[in-house]
Specification:
This protein is α+β, with helices and mostly antiparallel strands. It has five helices and 17 strands. Strands 11-16-15-14 form a four-stranded antiparallel sheet. A hairpin with a 5-residue loop joins strand 1 and strand 2.
């Protein structure tokens, strides 16, 4: 909190033992919890700017698909490393408990609970701007400024990189269900946006331990990718 005094001096106030300098992001952003009435699972939440995000990957699992099953039109749900059809068995896997469910784009657009929604590309840009990104001309793929990825990634759990986790978003390296099956767990985390790119692709964000930026790219809608919901 900065108060401008009569003679243009800046007085810094200490809040909860933390000194906030001009332009600095608070070390302990607003947090809370939300319980999904569909399955009783509780999620941590974080307030970033004017947005309230889930601070954990969505794990809602109404069905589960074999890793070889894929499509654009039907919703598909995957649990990393699991290749079966038993929902209870899949939901009990450590990968699901820790990293959540992987959704194709169709499933991602319908899986957030009431009062929440899959964020658009524009809502992701709002988050990135809040965390210090300077916007470059829109292109198919870019890595933003401001070390946004370093702030968004969780401080632990990555096989490489040195994330701070300071935003409280706590992005996890859940990997994905890609061209060759399950891949990249421990190295990268990907998140769908609600913004399509043509009939076959959707925009997503990617964060990897070897890069401190935020990667905006298209992926095939049949890929299985993590979901973070934002509050309505």
């Amino acid at each position: 909190m900065i108060i401008r005094m009569k003679h243009q001096f800046l007085l810094t106030i200490f809040l909860s033992g933390t000194m906030l300098l001009p332009g600095q992001t608070p070390a302990n952003p607003g947090s809370g919890t939300f319980t999904d009435a569909r399955d009783g699972r509780a999620y941590k939440t974080v307030t970033l700017g004017k947005q309230v995000w889930m601070a954990e990957n969505l794990a809602y699992l109404p069905a589960v698909n074999f890793v070889g099953e894929a499509g654009f039109e039907d919703a598909c749900y995957y649990v990393y490393g699991y290749n079966g059809k038993n929902i209870a068995e899949a939901a009990a896997k450590e990968a699901c408990m820790k990293y959540g469910t992987l959704y194709n784009w169709k499933a991602a657009t319908i899986s957030c609970p009431d009062g929440w929604h899959l964020p658009t590309d524009a809502e992701w840009r709002e988050l990135e701007k809040h965390l210090g990104m300077e916007y470059e001309p829109l292109s198919r793929s870019w890595i933003g400024s401001g070390a946004v990825g370093k702030k968004i990634r969780s401080a632990e759990g990555w096989k490489m990189g040195n994330a701070t986790g300071e935003s409280g978003f706590n992005a996890l390296p859940a990997g994905c269900r890609g061209y060759s099956g399950f891949e990249s767990m421990g190295f990268c985390g990907y998140f769908w946006t609600a913004t399509p790119s043509g009939s076959d692709n959707g925009w997503r964000r990617g964060f990897c331990g070897d890069n401190d930026g935020s990667c905006r790219e298209e992926d095939r809608k049949y890929f299985g990718i993590s979901v973070r919901c934002v509050k309505n």
